[in-house]
Amino acid sequence: MTSKAYFYIKFKPATARALSSIALTSLYGWFLLKFFVDETKPVLQVIIGILALVGMLTAILVFLSANGFLANAPKDRIDERELAQRNEAYFRAYQYMISAVLVGLLAVFLWEQSTGLKITLHQFSNFLTVLFFTGLVMPASVLAYQDKSHVDDQ
């Protein structure tokens, strides 16, 4: 059996929690703000674009963290306790993702019923982008929030 080297960034749990909060807040903020800014305000469009970039980059950092490694590690690289933590994290992430999809579809329905405006393919694509990055970061985020190993993080 050959040993593979795995790369991950060792953040304190508080740092991983903060980065995951920044990622999710930035991504959902970007998505929602895109509904209220038109083409006549290019400065706001740039700011909203930066918000998306911050969200995506911090999501990738969380994914590359030690929590992300634990969430995606092969079974032979983690012990039984870590495997149980990972399974619970994936269950919580699954619950969150199903809820996010349900709320998103319900919001689309209510938006179209109340305004008469249809959601465009571009807007739906933005929603799928947010869901993708949320799914990428969510298991590691759950693990970071469950990590009680550092008392000084409280």
Explain this structure to me?
- The chain has helices at 13-33, 42-63, 66-72, 80-115, 121-146.
- It has 154 residues and is an all-alpha fold.
- Helix 1 (13-33) packs antiparallel against helix 2 and helix 1 (13-33) packs antiparallel against helix 5 (121-146).
- The model has no long low-confidence stretch (mean pLDDT 87).
- It is elongated.
- The chain has one domain (13-148).
- It has 5 helices and no strands.
Helices and strands in order, then pairings?
Layout (H helix, E strand, L loop, with lengths): L12 H21 L8 H22 L2 H7 L7 H36 L5 H26 L8
Helix pairs in contact: 1-2, 1-5, 2-5, 3-5, 4-5
Q: Into how many domains do the coordinates divide?
A: 1
Helix/strand/pairing category: mainly alpha
Unreliably modeled segments:
none
Total number of β-strand segments? Answer: 0
Percent of residues in β-strands: under 5%
Which oligomeric state applies? single chain
Q: Approximately how much helix is present in the residues?
A: over 70%
N-to-C span: 41 Å
What shape does the CA trace take? elongated
Q: Biggest β-sheet: count, sense, barrel? A: none
Q: Mean pLDDT across all residues, rounded?
A: 87
H/I helix tally: 5
Q: Spell out the helices and strands N to C.
A: HHHHH
Which tags fit this structure?
154 residues, mainly alpha, 5 helices, 0% strand
Give a short overview.
The chain is an all-alpha fold and 154 residues long.
